[in-house]
Structure formats: structure tokens, C-alpha cells
Amino acid sequence: MAKIKEILVYNPKTKREEWKFTERKKISVKDQNNELTQERLKEILKYIKKTGIFTWKVSRGTKKAGSEAGVLHPQGYRQIGLCGNIYTARKLAFLYVFGYLPECPVSTKNGVPDDNRFANLRLGRQNGVKKNEINTRIFKREFKV
Questions:
Q1: 3-state secondary structure of 24
Q2: Residue 47 near residue 96, CB atoms below 8 Å
Q3: Which residues are bridge partners to 107 per DSSP?
Q4: Domain 38-123 is in which class?
């Protein structure tokens, strides 16, 4: 639904000011540019490398400036919604520091899903092999009785 706004406009033909009604369209997510860049991210969020916490720089709806951004996923990692998409805080940390979103998964070195300190993050592998898990096939072979 468009909002109607009345504004005072100068008309050069009549050399008078006239009241004019204009429509203000509400911009939907589909109308916006959905590309998230490092510059845009730094305008919206603040990331502290030592703590791994993202905070809002500006108030957005119910989210107040200075409050922690995102929500915890049931699996324990933090998700943040920006520009019509949902990102993990880990990937946003790479975008914030290096200027690109990694295509491969980002994992934590200590295995704590919500520990997004930059020193604790590492790029995962595309093939799905996880460093934090023990390869059970090798384990059984080594300790076979």
C-alpha cells in the first residue's frame, strides 16, 4: 500500500507555489539491491575480532543500536539476517575482515559453534571432511585386536 504525501512545489510556468500530492512507495526486499558488500556490512554492523561479537550500529525495527546482532540456531551457531538473506556470523566475519564471502564452510577451531572470534575461525573443506571429527575407520584399524 502506497502512502500519499502532500508537498509544496514551485511551478516555474505559473511562478507560484502549488500543493502537489505524491505517492511514496514502500520499498520491499525484492526492490532493494540484495548484494552484501564489505562496505555495506561495516555501515550496518560492528565486529570485534577479540570477542567475535557483531553489534548493530544503527537501529532497525525492534533491534536497537549497540545490541548483539542475530539469533542462535538450534545447532548453536549464530545467524544474522541482512539484505534479505540469512548469513552465519562466521562468514560475515570473513566478509568484514577480508572483503569476500567464502563459498566453503567456515568452522571453529575449538568446536564451540558460537565462538566467532576471528583467531578461532578457519575455512573448511569443500569435500565435507571435518577436522574436529575422528576418522573411525582409521581408529578401528589401528587398535584391532
A1: strand
A2: yes
A3: 122
A4: alpha beta
5-43 burial code (b ≥16 CB/10 A, e <16):
eeeeeeeeeeeeeeeeeeeeeeeeeeeeeeebebeebee
- Cα separation, 28 vs 31, whole angstroms: 5
How confident is the model over 18-38, as pLDDT tens digits? 766 655 544 344 435 568 899
Cell of 120: 578461532
Per-residue DSSP letters for 36-72?
--HHHHHHHEEEETTTTEEEESS-BTTBPTTSBPSEE
Domains of the chain, by residue range, sit at 38-123
Question: How many CA atoms does the CB half-sphere of 108 hold within 13 Å?
Answer: 15
For range 102-120, the mean pLDDT: 88
